[in-house]
Amino acid sequence: MLHAVGLSMPKGLWNSFENELPWQCKYAAKLGDVHRNKLEISLGTLRINLSKSYNLKGSVIAVEILIDPVLLNKRKKPTSFASFSTFPPAIKDLSLVVSKKEPAENIRIKVEEIVQSVISNDITMDPINLFDVFSGKGLSEDKKSIACSLRMRAPDRTLGEKEVNHAFEKIRLGIENETDYELRK
Length: 185
Description:
Elements: E1 15-16, E2 23-33, H1 34-37, E3 39-46, H2 48-53, E4 61-67, H3 69-73, E5 90-99, H4 104-118, E6 124-125, E7 129-134, E8 143-153, H5 161-178, E9 182-183
Antiparallel strand pairs: 1-2, 2-3, 3-4, 5-8, 5-9, 6-8, 7-8
């Protein structure tokens, strides 16, 4: 929907709602702030008593998008074509042990920021893909494991094993130094 009106997702982290109507506490979150960056997205489960007052059975998932009209009046520059590498990506998986309370998307965003800050200009990274969230046996009660896939490539060549391992080590050190996430072994 945002794409249709020429907008993209607000930058930042999702913030969980604690006690705001009509949202169910800890089962809804918002991204952005309509007063600051002219765009706000809220989504999650509506309060159960609200659903029951309309005779609805089960949970109701809702999305609210607030857009300041000023944002819609801005003219966007046309997107120009950016060539992409025809060389195959090198793929490395990364598994992190994190707090159960932290949303997976916030973790993905933080890892992506670290990757962008430590990777050299001759290597490009595809967007990070989360492919597994696990909690239970082998992890403490307040922890979960998040697995993500890192796809890196060079525009002019196939990356060698040494380059990939060097880049991955820089990413690992960045995560170790800038977060409280643990690398799962």
